[in-house]
Design goal:
The structure holds two protein chains of two kinds.
Chain A: E1 16-20, E2 23-25, E3 31-35, E4 42-50, E5 56-64, E6 71-72, H1 90-93, E7 96-97, E8 116-124, E9 138-145, E10 152-158, E11 161-167, E12 174-180, H2 190-196, E13 201-206, H3 220-231, E14 236-246, H4 248-259, E15 267-271, H5 283-292, E16 298-299, E17 305-306, E18 331-336, H6 344-358, E19 364-369, E20 386-391, E21 396-401, H7 406-429
Parallel strand pairs in A: 2-9, 12-13, 12-14, 14-15, 15-18, 18-19
Antiparallel strand pairs in A: 1-3, 3-6, 4-5, 4-8, 5-7, 8-9, 10-11, 11-13, 16-17, 20-21
Chain B: H1 2-20, E1 40-44, E2 47-49, E3 55-59, E4 66-74, E5 80-88, E6 95-96, E7 104-105, H2 114-117, E8 120-121, E9 140-148, E10 167-176, E11 183-189, E12 192-198, E13 205-211, H3 221-227, E14 232-237, H4 255-267, E15 271-281, H5 283-294, E16 302-305, E17 333-334, E18 340-341, E19 366-371, H6 379-392, E20 399-404, E21 421-425, E22 431-434, H7 439-463
Parallel strand pairs in B: 2-10, 13-14, 13-15, 15-16, 16-19, 19-20
Antiparallel strand pairs in B: 1-3, 3-6, 4-5, 4-9, 5-7, 5-8, 9-10, 11-12, 12-14, 17-18, 21-22
The chains are: A alpha/beta, B alpha/beta.
Chain lengths: 440, 465
C-alpha cells in the first residue's frame, strides 16, 4: 500500500555553504565556499549578525557561480555590495547596520566569554536590500571568538586598580601587556582577550569611568600601580612587559614611557595616538585643558564632530607635549592618515623630529595607513567612519567623526595587527637571550 | 677542561644569585648566561571539527634541541588520555608538526594529527577503555604542551607524570563533532528511537540513516559530523536502549522498524525524499543491506563498514523473534589474555544460508570499507561474498570496496584513537573483546575512508540527477 507522503522530489537540493574553520578567532582568516549552485548563476552572499545591543548588522557581495556551480570567496571577486573585489573576509569587515537602524552605532564585543555569531547565506540574484524578506537558498553559521580555549579571565580589583586580566593557558611565565583604550572610557576587554590568545598576559585597564557614581581620580600613580600589579603577577615575566594604547591610551603610554620611574617597558605600541597633551598633570587637568580647545572643534556636513584640529598646530613649548626624546624602548606608532579625531599624522611627524634631535629615532617605527581612520582595531572588525560618543567632561552626546574609508581601513586593521604581534613577539618573546654553552 | 667547568659552575652560581636578587647578570668571557626563554606553542584552529586538520607549531624554543610534544585530555568518564612524540627543534628553535618528523613516542614520522589519533589511556587508568563522545553538543578539550627533552610518560612522581617545570609552553584546543548551527532533534516517533541532526538553513538536504552495531545504545557522533557537512543524518537506536521495549540482550525491533526510520527521513519537509543514503558499521551493515534490498525503500547509495551479509539471528521479520547475542558462543574465540574475538560469528561459512540478505536485489551503489585486521567481524570474507554474489547477477558495477591493511573493526571518523580491544561486558564476568587494528595503520584508514565516505555521499546524494 503506497503511503500518503509529502515528498520533496520536485524540490531541488539546496546549495551547500561551508565555512572553514566554522569556529575561529577574530583574527583568523576563514574560507567561505558555496557549492551545488546552478552554473553561471548570479548570487548574493550575505552575512548577518545580531549585536549584544540587539541591533542587526549585515554585509553582502555579488558573485557569479562558475561552470561547476561554485563560488569561492578566496578566489572569486565580488562585483558589488558592501565590498568589491576578491576579499575572503569581506563579509566580516564590511558589516554595517541594517537599513532603519539607530544612528551612530558601533559594534563592540563586551562579553568576550561568548563568540560573535554570524549567519552566512546565499541568495538568488544580485540583491541589495530586503534580505530579511528574501528566502535564502542556504545558510551556514560561524562563530568568531576573541578568546582562545584555555585563556583565563580574571577580574582585577586590587590596590585601587580596576581592570580585567587575561592569562594564556599553560604555566608561563608569560610576557605582560598593559592595554589601554581611549577617551570613551569604561572597561573594554576584547583586545586583551585576543592578546592572551596569542600568548601574552594582558591587563585591560579601566581608567576613565563611564559610571558617574564611580569617579576615578586618576593620577600617574594609578598607571604605575597597574603596571606593578601586572609585573608582580606570578605568571608574568617581570622583565618582558609592554604598554599598548589606543587614542588617549597612547598618550598615557608615551607619558609613562618618557617620565615614569616605575614603568620601564621593553616596548610600546601606540595606535592612533599623540604625544600632545599636558605633562605632569593629573588626567583631570589634562581634560580641563583639552576642553579649553573645544572651540577648535568643527563639524562636517552631517553635524559629526571633528576633533582633529584640537591639538593643531603641534605646540613647540615643552610641558605641552611629551618629551619623546626621553623614551628608551622601541615604540611602534600606528596611525590612519584619514584620522579625523586626532591629528596623529602630524603628531607622528613631530615625534620623529623630536626623537631625531634627541638621538633615539632608531627606536621609532611608524605604520601610516592611507585612507584609514582613528579606530584601528583587531582585524576584520567593521569600520566606523563615525559613531555615537559621550564627551564625559561636557556630559554631551555627539556623533564623532573617526574618519577612514572602509576598504583601506580594513586593510590597515589587518596589516597593523600582524605587525603589532610581530613587534610584541620580537621584543617580548624573542629577546636576545643566549644559550648556555659549556666549553668541554 | 676542569677549570672551564669550575668557571661554568661559578658563573651559574653568580647567575642564580643575580636572578633571585632581580639584578641583571653580567656574562663571563667565553661563557654566556642562560636567561629564561619564553617559548610559544600555537595551534590553528584552536576550535576545530573532529575531521579538521590542526596545525601545531612551537617557536622561540632552544634551537637544535630535543623536545617532547604532548597531548592530554579527559574523557567524559574522567579517564586521562595521553599521547606524546619526540622531536628536535630546528636551527631557529621552531617545531612544526606539519613539517617535522617524530622520532619516537606514541607515533613516528611526519604526522600532523598524530597527537590526536595516538591518544591512549594514561598509565594507571582503567583497563579496556575506548574513547567515545556521548554528548556531541560539547567539545573534547585537549591540552597540548611542549616539554624540554625526550620524556616518557612514566617520568616523575607517580600518577602525576611529567614534572611541571619541564613544560615550556602550552595551548588548548577544542575538538567538536558538531559545527555551529547544526540542530540536534530527539526522535521518538512511530515507535522509532533516534536522534536527527539537521544542518542549518532552509534545506532541503540529502538524508543519511546512520546505523551502528551490537554495542547498542544510541551513538550520535557520526551523524553530528555528517550534519556538519550539510547532510541531515539520523542516528538510529535499535538494540539495548531504554526507550525500546522488550527483553534485554535481544533485538526487539522488526524489519518494519527500519522501514519506518527510513521513511521518517524521506517524509521530513527539509529532506529530499529521493536523496537518502544508509550508512552502517558492524552489525549495522547487515541492517543496511537488508534495508537496501528487502524493505521496499530505495536509498540512493549505501555504505558498509566492516559488517556481515548475514546473521545468526534469523530475525526481524514480522513473525520471528530474534535470538540473543550470547547464543552462539561456539564461534567465540579467545586469545592468550582471555580476550574474546567474535570474528567467526560473522564468517559466511558459519551462517545458515537462509540468513543471508538477498544482495542480488541491490539497485544502488555500495561502498564497502574494509579493515584487514578486523578481529570482530569476518569483514574480508563478507566483502568477498558480497562482490561474488553481485558479480553473479551482473551487478559488479554497483560494488566499490576500499581495503585497509592493518586497520581494525572500528573504522570511525578520523583523528580519533583506535581501540584494539575494549571492555565488552562485566556480567557474568569481565570480558574484553578484540577489535583489531594497529594504531598508525588504523589512523590512515580512518582518515582516508572518511574522505571517501563523504565523497561517495556527495557523488550519489548531491551530484547525480
Amino acid at each position: 500500500m503506497a503511503s500518503m507522503v509529502i515528498t520533496n522530489r520536485s524540490l531541488s537540493l539546496s546549495p551547500l555553504i561551508s565555512v572553514q574553520p566554522s569556529r575561529a578567532l577574530v583574527d583568523e582568516k576563514i574560507t567561505i565556499t558555496v557549492r551545488n549552485l546552478p552554473p553561471k548563476q548570479k548570487v548574493t552572499l550575505h552575512s548577518l549578525h545580531q549585536s549584544e545591543d540587539k541591533d542587526f548588522w549585515e554585509a553582502f557581495g555579488h558573485y557569479i557561480s562558475d561552470e561547476d556551480g561554485t563560488v569561492n570567496m578566496a578566489e572569486d571577486a565580488s562585483l558589488g555590495g558592501t565590498y568589491e573585489g576578491t576579499e575572503p573576509m569581506g563579509l566580516l569587515w564590511s558589516l554595517q547596520p541594517v537599513p532603519g537602524s539607530r544612528p551612530g552605532l558601533r559594534l563592540r564585543k563586551m562579553n568576550v566569554l561568548l563568540p560573535m555569531v554570524v549567519h552566512i547565506s546565499v541568495h538568488s540574484g544580485h540583491i541589495v536590500h530586503g534580505f530579511s524578506q528574501a528566502a535564502a537558498l542556504a545558510t551556514a553559521v560561524t562563530e568568531r571568538w576573541f578568546m582562545a580555549p584555555g585563556v583565563r579571565r580574571v577580574d582585577v580589583r586590587e590596590s585601587g586598580i580596576r581592570g580585567t586580566l587575561f592569562i594564556p593557558p599553560g604555566h608561563g611565565p608569560f610576557p605582560g601587556i598593559l592595554d589601554m583604550w581611549g577617551g570613551g572610557g569604561g572597561l573594554v576587554e576584547y583586545r586583551s582577550a585576543l592578546l592572551a590568545s596569542h600568548g601574552f598576559v594582558s591587563l585591560a585597564l579601566e581608567y576613565l569611568s563611564v559610571d558617574e557614581r564611580r569617579e576615578i581620580n586618576v593620577e600617574t600613580t594609578y598607571f604605575e600601580t597597574a603596571y606593578q600589579v601586572l609585573q608582580n603577577h606570578p605568571q608574568v615575566q617581570r622583565d618582558s612587559l609592554a604598554l599598548l594604547g589606543l587614542s588617549f591610551g597612547s598618550s598615557v603610554t608615551l607619558t609613562m614611557a618618557a617620565y615614569s620611574k616605575v614603568i620601564k617597558p621593553q616596548c610600546c605600541v601606540c595606535i592612533s595616538g599623540s604625544h600632545v597633551h599636558l605633562v605632569n598633570k593629573s588626567l583631570f587637568e589634562v581634560f580641563q585643558d583639552f576642553s579649553i580647545n573645544m572651540p577648535k572643534a568643527r563639524v562636517d556636513e552631517n553635524n559629526h564632530v571633528i576633533w582633529r584640529g584640537l591639538i593643531l598646530p603641534i605646540p613647540t613649548e615643552p610641558g605641552k607635549k611629551v618629551d619623546v626624546g626621553r623614551i628608551k624602548c622601541p615604540v611602534l606608532l600606528v596611525l590612519g592618515e584619514d584620522d579625523q579625531n586626532w591629528a596623529t599624522k602630524e603628531s607622528a611627524q613631530d615625534m620623529e623630529a623630536m626623537m631625531e634631535r634627541a638621538g633615539n629615532k632608531h627606536l621609532l617605527t611608524v605604520l601610516s595607513y592611507p585612507g584609514a581612520g582613528h579606530l584601528i582595531e583587531p582585524p576584520y572588525s567593521p569600520h566606523f567612519r563615525s559613531s555615537n560618543f559621550i564627551i564625559q567632561q561636557l556630559k554631551k552626546k555627539v556623533i564623532m567623526l573617526w574618519g577612514g574609508q572602509t576598504k583601506p581601513h580594513a586593510y590597515a586593521q589587518e596589516d597593523s595587527w600582524k605587525k603589532i604581534l610581530d613587534f610584541l613577539y620580537q621584543h617580548l618573546y624573542n629577546k636576545p637571550n643566549a644559550s648556555l654553552q659549556a666549553r668541554l | 677542561m676542569f677549570s672551564s667547568s669550575i668557571r661554568e659552575l661559578l658563573c651559574l652560581r653568580q647567575l642564580y644569585r643575580a636572578i633571585i636578587s632581580g639584578q641583571r647578570c653580567k656574562a663571563q668571557v667565553g661563557l654566556r648566561t642562560y636567561c629564561r626563554p619564553a617559548p610559544l606553542l600555537t595551534a590553528s584552529p584552536t576550535r576545530a571539527l573532529i575531521d579538521e586538520l590542526i596545525t601545531v607549531e612551537g617557536c622561540f624554543l632552544t634551537p637544535n634541541s630535543p623536545i617532547t610534544v604532548r597531548a592530554r585530555m579527559h574523557s567524559e568518564d574522567g579517564d586521562l588520555w595521553e599521547s606524546l612524540a619526540y622531536y628536535y627543534t630546528d636551527g631557529r628553535g621552531t617545531v612544526n608538526l606539519n613539517r617535522d618528523s617524530s622520532i619516537g613516542g606514541s607515533y613516528v614520522g611526519c604526522e600532523p594529527m598524530g597527537l590526536f589519533w595516538s591518544l591512549q589511556a594514561a598509565p594507571g587508568e582503567r583497563e579496556g577503555l575506548r574513547l567515545r563522545k556521548r554528548d556531541v553538543e560539547t567539545p573534547y578539550l585537549v591540552d597540548l604542551s611542549v616539554l624540554q627533552g625526550h620524556i616518557s610518560s612514566c617520568d616523575g612522581a607517580g600518577g602525576q607524570g611529567m614534572r611541571a617545570e619541564q613544560e615550556v609552553a602550552a595551548v588548548k584546543v577544542e575538538r567538536w563533532y558538531m559545527s555551529p548551527g547544526v540542530r540536534r532533534v530527539e526522535i521518538r516517533q512511530n515507535g522509532v528511537v533516534g536522534t536527527l541532526f539537521m544542518p542549518p538553513g532552509p534545506g532541503p538536504f540529502p538524508g543519511v540513516l546512520d546505523l551502528w552495531g551490537m554495542g547498542g545504545g544510541l551513538v550520535e557522533y557520526r551523524s553530528a559530523l555528517f550534519a556538519s557537512h550539510g547532510l541531515a543524518s539520523f542516528a538510529l537506536a535499535y538494540f539495548d536502549h531504554k526507550d525500546i521495549p522488550g527483553p534485554a540482550k535481544r533485538v526487539n525491533v522488526k524489519d518494519s522498524y527500519f522501514k519506518t526510520a527510513f521513511e521518517i527521513l524521506q517524509n521530513h519537509p527539509q529532506i529530499c525524499s529521493d536523496r537518502v543514503a544508509v550508512v552502517g558499521l558492524s552489525f549495522g551493515v547487515y541492517l543496511t543491506l537488508k534495508i537496501a534490498t528487502q524493505l521496499s525503500v530505495n536509498p540512493s547509495c549505501i555504505i558498509c563498514i566492516n559488517g556481515p551479509l548475514g546473521s545468526f539471528n534469523k530475525s526481524f521479520n514480522e513473525n520471528g523473534v530474534s535470538g540473543t547475542f550470547d547464543e552462539h558462543q561456539e564461534y567465540w574465540s579467545y586469545d592468550e589474555h582471555n580476550n574474546v574475538s567474535f570474528r567467526e560469528m560473522s564468517s559466511p561459512k558459519n551462517i545458515p544460508p537462509e540468513n543471508f540478505v538477498k544482495i542480488e536485489n541491490l539497485n544502488c551503489p555500495l561502498l564497502y570499507i574494509l579493515g584487514e585486521d578486523d578481529l570482530s567481524c569476518a569483514a574480508v570474507e563478507n566483502a568477498d561474498e558480497i562482490e561474488k554474489r553481485l558479480r553473479a547477477v551482473g551487478k559488479s558495477h554497483l560494488f566499490n570496496c576500499v581495503s585497509y591493511p592493518g586497520a581494525g573493526h572500528l573504522i570511525e571518523p578520523p583523528y580519533t584513537p583506535n581501540a584494539r580491544a575494549s571492555l565488552w561486558t562485566t556480567r557474568p564476568t569481565k570480558l574484553i573483546t578484540l577489535w583489531g587494528g594497529n594504531l598508525a595503520q588504523h589512523a590512515v584508514a580512518q582518515e582516508d575512508s572518511w574522505k571517501r565516505i563523504l565523497g561517495f555521499l556527495d557523488l550519489y546524494l548531491r551530484q547525480s540527477d
